[in-house]
């Protein structure tokens, strides 16, 4: 590496690699709500990347994480040179909206976006969060599942209800051109009744009526139930992301 390259921590979460008075690379960190620290490095040259990564790793406590597109072999190898290893893979699916809606179990009704009442939706949200805490933990969940109470916007949720109780939900992100299915969740005491499939096909049918041809979703490779759910709706794998960790 050129002797003129100097890496400096310019802010709490930012590093710059300088060549003279010119910035030739940047490193950043972000802290997720689950407490994990994620790194990113933007540098044209591998030697600059390596120097930035080295400086950041020296300054930061482990474990550390980063996300890469699995097809970006160059970036993946750079992080591996720094000592990172693959922790998990998430598949991005493209989900067609042409699936035939599946009838819900007897007594269960579907509430479309904006129809759910705030208080029972909050109650369901808290139940799901408690089950995450007692089960897989926040680090195993999608980025959309955030620890602690968060503001709820009923316009982003479709809900499966039985009487006054809410049993399951789908949260949709209004991404332009291709909405993103951010979360599909059913209370543990209401699972294995076909509620998730019925709720998801209800959401897809609503999108289809609005002229939307497909939605996207990210599914962890080891989540076999979710993989079966989406692949049973003719979803196709479009790409994959790797979450790398340095312990």
TrEMBL record:
Keywords: Transferase. It comes from the Bacteria. Residues 116-247 form the N-acetyltransferase domain. One of its GO terms (molecular function) is acyltransferase activity, transferring groups other than amino-acyl groups. InterPro entries: Acyl_CoA_acyltransferase, GNAT_dom. This is Acetyltransferase (GNAT) family protein.
């Amino acid at each position: 590496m050129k002797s003129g390259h100097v890496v400096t921590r310019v802010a709490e979460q930012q590093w710059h690699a300088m060549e003279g008075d010119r910035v030739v690379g940047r490193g950043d960190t972000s802290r997720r709500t689950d407490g994990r620290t994620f790194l990113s490095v933007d540098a044209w040259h591998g030697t600059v990347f390596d120097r930035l990564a080295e400086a950041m790793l020296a300054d930061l406590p482990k474990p550390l994480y980063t996300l890469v597109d699995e097809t970006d072999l160059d970036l993946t190898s750079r992080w591996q040179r720094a000592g990172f290893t693959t922790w998990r893979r998430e598949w991005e699916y493209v989900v067609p909206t042409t699936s035939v809606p599946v009838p819900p179990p007897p007594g269960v009704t579907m509430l479309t976006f904006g129809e759910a009442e705030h208080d029972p939706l909050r109650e369901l949200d808290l139940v799901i969060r408690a089950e995450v805490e007692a089960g897989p933990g926040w680090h195993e969940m999608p980025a959309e599942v955030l620890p602690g109470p968060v503001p709820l916007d009923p316009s982003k949720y479709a809900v499966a209800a039985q009487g006054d109780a809410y049993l399951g939900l789908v949260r949709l992100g209004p991404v332009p051109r291709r909405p993103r299915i951010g979360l599909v969740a059913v209370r543990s005491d209401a699972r294995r009744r076909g509620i998730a499939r019925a709720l998801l096909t209800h959401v897809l049918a609503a999108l289809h009526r609005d002229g939307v041809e497909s939605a996207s979703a990210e599914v962890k490779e080891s989540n076999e139930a979710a993989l079966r759910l989406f692949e049973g709706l003719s979803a196709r794998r479009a790409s994959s992301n790797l979450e790398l960790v340095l312990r």
